[in-house]
Write a structure and sequence with these properties.
Elements lengths: L4 E2 L4 H8 L16 H21 L2 E5 L7 H6 L4 H20 L8 E7 L14 H17 L4 E7 L2 H14 L3 E5 L13 H12 L4 E4 L3 H5 L11 E6 L6 H6 L8 H14 L5 E4 L5 H8 L6
Parallel strand pairs: 1-2, 1-8, 2-3, 3-4, 4-5, 5-6, 6-7, 7-8
């Protein structure tokens, strides 16, 4: 079995619902710009460092920058220079945090997180790869300049956007993991299978591996067909809730499910995806869920 890296849970839902922090545009990156926000982020990530120590695992700390792109940044008053700064600062913050615990940890990495240009729950309608590469390259370049070990794009719904991001990262020499989400039927919102999506990206610019995120294990399980694509899944971040994306989009209360049951449901995916390296959670999950996935006490 691949040696796994422990990463965090659903950052945004945890901050909003469990910690009472307002995140306009569902964006956590502006927290980096205030002392209070940085303190909240350090508290959040430190709990996962503690968890990695208890689990005897290497920790992968991934930046709070899923929304730190031009479209969402502009809505929040961030221009290109401000986005470059906040993406770099996010890497610096996590590197400083991990380095301070270096002697306790088996190992650590810092990764830069990016998200889709549009809505992570809606089909993007056919994205031009070259346009996507140009759009996402500045954020990837900021991660590379700050010394991130890797980048990961989560919650993609469009193959063209995945291809563009993979090509831009390859140009920069930054390893990037391409993450797609699926609907309750195990398919992308446009109806493609994960196998089809992976094959298209691999043909254009093969990433080290792929992620599947932002779906409950029972939804992802409907995609399983025994195909070779299953060995290309290297990262898994599942949702706590069995609700559909459409239902989650309008939910006013957090559905955090049952952490132990989620870990049980996820076991079938870990058996089906033998190359999973990075294991954490997505929407609705928190320290309890990731602890259950790793078979250790949450400690808080």
């Amino acid at each position: 079995m691949t040696q796994r890296l422990l990463t965090d849970g659903g950052l945004e839902t945890d901050l909003i619902f469990n910690r009472g922090i307002d995140l306009p545009e569902f964006a956590a990156f502006p927290l980096v710009d205030t002392a209070e926000g940085r303190a909240a982020l350090r508290d959040y990530y430190s709990a996962y460092v503690d968890l990695a120590v208890r689990a005897g695992a290497t920790v992968l700390l991934e930046t709070p920058t899923w929304r730190a792109n031009p479209d969402h940044g502009a809505t929040l008053g961030y221009d290109a220079a401000a986005l470059d700064r906040v993406n770099r600062t996010s890497v610096d913050l996590l590197r400083e945090l991990a380095a301070g615990r270096d002697e306790e940890l088996l190992g650590w990495q810092v990764g830069g997180i990016l998200g889709p240009r549009g809505d992570g729950y809606q089909a993007a309608g056919g994205v031009d790869p070259a346009e996507a590469a140009d759009y996402h390259r500045p954020q990837l370049a900021a991660f590379a300049a700050a010394g991130a070990d890797r980048a990961t794009v989560l919650t993609l719904t469009d193959v063209g956007e995945g291809i563009g991001i993979a090509q831009a990262a390859a140009d920069l020499g930054l390893p990037v993991m391409i993450g797609f989400t699926v609907e309750t039927d195990g398919r992308l919102p446009d109806g493609r299978t994960l196998g089809e999506a992976f094959a298209a990206v691999d043909e254009a610019a093969a990433p080290p591996y792929f992620f599947v995120n932002c779906a409950h294990p029972t939804h992802v399980a409907r995609a399983l067909d025994g195909g070779a694509w299953q060995a290309r899944v290297g990262g898994l971040r599942v949702n706590a809730s069995t609700m559909s994306h459409a239902e989650l989009d309008v939910a006013t209360d957090l559905d955090d499910g049952d952490p132990n049951l989620l870990a049980v449901d996820q076991k079938a995916l870990l058996d089906a995806f033998p190359q999973v390296e990075v294991l954490g959670g997505c929407c609705g999950t928190d320290l309890r869920h990731v602890a259950a996935m790793w078979g250790v006490d949450a400690g808080r």
